[in-house]
């Protein structure tokens, strides 16, 4: 049979048509698109405003709680005497601004006496000190040393502590300060002298607030580290704290430098001593030094320091440990008079605001907020796809030749552009809001993660859209998913990250959509927080190689799911109705197996067909043997079985229909609701696949060549499938390009199509501003553009006024000159005016076929006499008519109006007129009429006869 007259539009042409249509459509939705892209900006602006409000609030609190002190820090009056101190224990620094934190001498962290390293059964080192009395302060403390050059290292260790005898120490400590110093005495000069000494403490600072050195305030001893102690001497150090002089007890402690052969031995000893071999007490060292890379010309030292049982945010007291070895090195190479000064340590001044809000508001609200924010586009994407499915726009485009590949690629590109703009705004305003999560982490890593997630989100939305048919349901489910995934991440995944859950368990959880996003944001938050507190950086590119970092696994999961979701979405995508057009041969055979169990009934129906139907079937059989290019549509014994639902049996919707439709003919399909007309059109247009039999459109089989048939057919659906914001020109330009029309040919086709339906004057007016009749005419113009071989018009004039209907009929009459048209309608007037042949469908079967006159002659042959009189004269009128015409049959009777059918044979029209003239003299007859059989009468008669035979 003849193939399509038009070459199919290439992928590039289809993509170009869809792209230009989408650009025109999105231009009219510019405000909505801008709102979508700027939505993160609005949220960040709200956060900035809220952050500013909190800043003002905390600043007000600062002013309200600031101590009423003078410039010297002294209380203005006695009421505030105790609240104006800046360093004594009973002052809570959160309630009062700390103007000038105290300077504290740097200390070395020394183990408590009961934990200091000593010889034991599990510490077989003979050079460790003997066990000493643990309840006093006489135990020495150990320092471990290793080096390649032992003599050099020994010289450093000898210079570690200032060697003073008792008189020198007394002079150094008390020479500048009276022993009985009183409050208010200036002791500023004392601090540098004390800082020259190696002081230590065994206080763990469990109550530290980063402003006070509690070792000087709680009465515990301050240790003086020496190579040899003079136990008979006790010292009191006067310290100036908050303008008060506080005497401080000073005790000497011996610091033993113990040699180890390697840093590995040091590490093992530290670990073994810390564990205590399962004992209640541990053997702890004060510090250890690896001088393997140090020498006269180079100072490169690795230091172990004691942080045992330190509470969170406690002072680790590392500076003095570093200073001791550095100062000793300087003395060894430059002489004993050279030294590195470390006079004091102190916390920077802070207020309530800097203490309560160490981090920004965005970090405080956590990853869950950003999970919500990053997924706000998900409902937008799903709704866009589902909207085109719900409004049947996707199907309309497919029936006019748009391929699935072009649709998905252009749609994906549009969503990616919107998502990328959204991401740019998200990152710009996130940075402008000064959130540490944006400022601390590498922008390269952030962009990679967010961009990967956006692609993942698009593919996930495409997959999710295949499960929805209405926008309302899709929106509810999408927003529920957004909030649910954020909450689930916060209360399921987040606890797992803080426990001993294995990495495999965490990865399995991250495979669930939404959890991988939460994990990635959690990594950003974690790294930015630690970087902020340490004064360093957040997540860097090189951190992705860290096995403890979860970002790399998240990126791999997202990329894998991104590709997987795309493949599954393409597989599940069924734009053409129920998708049975994609059914495999095996599936179709399975359906046929159920159908053929009732084929005996179907065969009997075929045997009962009338002569006109049998003649049509014979013609189709001849065309199957000897194809004729004059016939555009050839339907060969097509059957469609609809699967029963809710326990109902399967239904044969189309029962072995055969039909041959030549070019330049309009075939009108009449039938009651549920007769099978729509099901037949669905098979012709690719909505569904026939259960058995087939149809050829332009020589192409609807079972195998539907994608090619789309290029040579036009469809005007029952309801107008239009984009409200596109003009008539833009509609026809889009569909014309899908039919492979280009340039001048396309422009000419657009003008001719709109002129034929009288819409040329509103060619650039948006379809949403059209009346119902104008939209209907535009739908017909769309179906006719591109010179299709066959056009399907489903009730094209429904709802039109008489003038618009006439314009439409004229356009269809002109269009059928060189193409086949299949028309469905409930208007008998329209069917007679447009159709060259008519077929009446009842219960899935074609009951009759022929021209309007042939059907009237065959199923009519009657006159219809209508008489209207007074209702009390109904019996008299009926008796009079039956008396003169014995074969008459009353078909209608209500409120004085009666209708009678009488065979034409044996009835003269003049005799009817004579009878009614005589009756009007005797009876009160207000109106009467005699009419030939109408097409409506034929339709009713055929439908009743068919229903009676089925019953």
TrEMBL record:
Transmembrane segments: 34-54, 361-386, 407-429, 449-469, 476-493, 553-572
GO CC terms, sorted: membrane
Domain ABC transporter: 633-868
Signal sequence, renumbered to the chain: none
Membrane-related topology note: Multi-pass membrane protein
SUPFAM superfamilies named in the record: P-loop containing nucleoside triphosphate hydrolases
Keywords: ATP-binding, Membrane, Nucleotide-binding, Transmembrane, Transmembrane helix, Transport
Short name of any one Pfam family annotated for the protein: ABCA12_C
Molecular-function annotations in GO: ABC-type transporter activity; ATP binding; ATP hydrolysis activity; lipid transporter activity
Source domain of life: Eukaryota
Compartment(s) of residence: Membrane
Gene3D superfamilies: P-loop containing nucleotide triphosphate hydrolases (3.40.50.300)
Entry-linked PANTHER family: ABC TRANSPORTER DOMAIN-CONTAINING PROTEIN, ATP-BINDING CASSETTE TRANSPORTER SUBFAMILY A ABCA
Family, similarity comment: Belongs to the ABC transporter superfamily. ABCA family. CPR flippase (TC 3.A.1.211) subfamily.
Protein name as it appears in the record: ABC transporter domain-containing protein
Source species of the chain: Rhynchospora breviuscula
Upper taxonomic lineage: Eukaryota, Viridiplantae, Streptophyta, Embryophyta, Tracheophyta
């Amino acid at each position: 049979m003849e193939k399509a007259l038009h070459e199919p539009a290439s992928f590039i042409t289809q993509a170009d048509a869809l792209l230009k249509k989408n650009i025109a459509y999105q231009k009219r939705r510019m405000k909505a698109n801008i709102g979508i892209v700027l939505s993160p900006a609005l949220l960040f602006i709200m956060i900035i405003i809220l952050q500013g409000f909190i800043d003002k609030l905390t600043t007000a609190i600062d002013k309200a709680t600031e101590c009423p002190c003078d410039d010297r820090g002294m209380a203005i009056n006695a009421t505030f005497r105790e609240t104006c101190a800046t360093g004594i224990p009973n002052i809570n620094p959160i309630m009062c601004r700390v103007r000038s934190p105290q300077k504290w001498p740097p200390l070395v962290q020394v183990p408590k006496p009961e934990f200091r390293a000593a010889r034991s059964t599990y510490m077989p080192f003979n050079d460790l000190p003997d066990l000493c009395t643990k309840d006093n302060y006489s135990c020495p403390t150990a320092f471990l040393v290793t080096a390649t050059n032992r003599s050099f290292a020994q010289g450093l260790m000898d210079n570690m502590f200032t060697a003073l005898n008792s008189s020198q120490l007394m002079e150094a400590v008390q020479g500048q300060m009276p022993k009985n110093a009183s409050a208010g005495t200036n002791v500023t000069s004392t601090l540098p002298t004390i800082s020259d000494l190696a002081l230590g403490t065994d206080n763990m600072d469990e109550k530290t607030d980063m402003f006070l050195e509690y070792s000087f305030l709680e009465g515990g001893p301050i240790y003086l580290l020496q190579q040899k102690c003079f136990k008979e001497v006790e010292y009191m150090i006067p310290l100036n704290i908050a303008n008060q002089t506080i005497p401080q007890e000073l005790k000497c402690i011996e610091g033993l430098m113990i040699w180890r052969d390697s840093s590995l031995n040091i590490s093992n000893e530290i670990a073994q001593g810390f564990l205590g071999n399962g004992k209640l007490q541990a053997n702890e060292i004060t510090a250890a030094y690896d001088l393997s890379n140090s020498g006269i010309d180079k100072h490169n030292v690795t230091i172990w320091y004691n942080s045992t049982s330190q509470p969170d945010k406690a002072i680790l007291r590392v500076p003095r440990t570093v200073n001791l070895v550095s100062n000793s090195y300087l003395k060894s190479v430059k002489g004993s008079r050279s030294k590195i000064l470390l006079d004091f340590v102190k916390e920077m001044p802070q207020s309530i605001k800097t203490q309560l809000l160490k981090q920004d508001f965005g970090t405080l609200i956590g990853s869950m907020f950003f999970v919500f924010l990053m997924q706000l586009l998900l409902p937008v994407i799903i709704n866009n796809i589902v909207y085109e499915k719900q409004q049947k726009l996707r199907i309309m485009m497919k029936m006019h030749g748009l391929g699935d590949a072009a649709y998905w690629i252009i749609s994906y590109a549009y969503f990616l552009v919107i998502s990328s703009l959204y991401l740019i705004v998200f990152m710009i305003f996130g940075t402008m809001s000064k959130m540490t999560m944006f400022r601390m982490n590498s922008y390269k890593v952030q962009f990679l993660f967010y961009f990967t997630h956006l692609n993942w989100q698009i593919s996930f939305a495409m997959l999710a859209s295949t499960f929805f048919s209405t926008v309302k349901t899709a929106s509810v489910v999408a927003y529920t998913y957004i909030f649910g995934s954020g909450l689930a991440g916060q209360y399921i995944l987040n606890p797992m990250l803080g426990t001993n859950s294995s990495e495999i368990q965490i990865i399995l959880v991250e495979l669930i959509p939404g959890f991988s996003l939460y994990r990635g944001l959690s990594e950003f938050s974690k790294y930015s927080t630690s970087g902020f507190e340490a004064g360093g950086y957040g997540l860097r590119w090189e951190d992705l190689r860290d096995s403890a970092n979860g970002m790399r696994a998240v990126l791999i999961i997202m990329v894998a799911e991104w590709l997987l979701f795309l493949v599954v979405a393409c597989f599940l995508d069924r734009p053409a109705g129920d998708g049975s057009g994609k059914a495999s041969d095996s599936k179709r055979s399975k359906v046929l197996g159920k159908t053929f169990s009732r084929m005996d009934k179907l065969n009997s129906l075929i045997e009962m067909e009338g002569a006109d139907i049998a003649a049509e079937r014979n013609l189709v059989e001849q065309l199957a043997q000897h194809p004729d290019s004059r016939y555009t549509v050839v339907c060969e014994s097509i059957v469609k079985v609809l699967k029963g639902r809710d326990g109902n049996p399967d239904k044969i919707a189309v029962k072995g229909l055969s039909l041959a439709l030549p070019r330049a003919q309009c075939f009108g399909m009449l039938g009651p609701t549920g007769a099978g007309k729509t099901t037949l059109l669905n098979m012709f247009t690719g909505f569904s696949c026939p259960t058995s039999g087939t149809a050829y459109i332009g020589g192409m089989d609807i079972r195998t060549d539907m994608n090619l048939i789309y290029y040579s057919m036009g469809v005007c659906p029952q309801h107008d499938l239009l984009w409200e914001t596109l003009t008539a020109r833009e509609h026809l330009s889009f569909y014309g390009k899908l039919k492979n029309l280009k340039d001048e040919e396309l422009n000419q086709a657009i003008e001719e199509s709109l002129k034929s339906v009288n819409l040329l004057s509103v060619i650039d007016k948006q379809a949403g501003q059209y009346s119902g009749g104008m939209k209907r005419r535009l739908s017909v113009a769309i179906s006719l553009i591109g010179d299709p071989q066959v056009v399907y018009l489903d009730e094209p004039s429904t709802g039109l006024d008489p003038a618009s209907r006439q314009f439409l009929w004229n356009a269809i009459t002109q269009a059928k000159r060189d193409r086949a048209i299949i028309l469905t309608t409930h208007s008998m007037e329209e069917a007679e005016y447009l159709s060259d042949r008519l077929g009446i469908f009842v219960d899935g079967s074609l009951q009759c076929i022929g021209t309007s006159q042939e059907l009237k002659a065959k199923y009519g042959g009657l006159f219809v006499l209508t008489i209207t009189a007074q209702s009390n004269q109904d019996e008299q009128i009926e008796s009079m008519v039956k008396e003169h015409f014995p074969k008459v049959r009353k078909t209608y009777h209500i409120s004085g109006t009666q209708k009678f059918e009488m065979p034409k044979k044996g009835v003269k029209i003049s005799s009817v007129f004579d009878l009614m003239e005589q009756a009007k003299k005797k009876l009160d007859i207000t109106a009467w009429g005699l009419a030939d059989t109408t097409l409506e009468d034929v339709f009713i008669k055929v439908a009743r006869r068919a229903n009676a035979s089925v019953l």
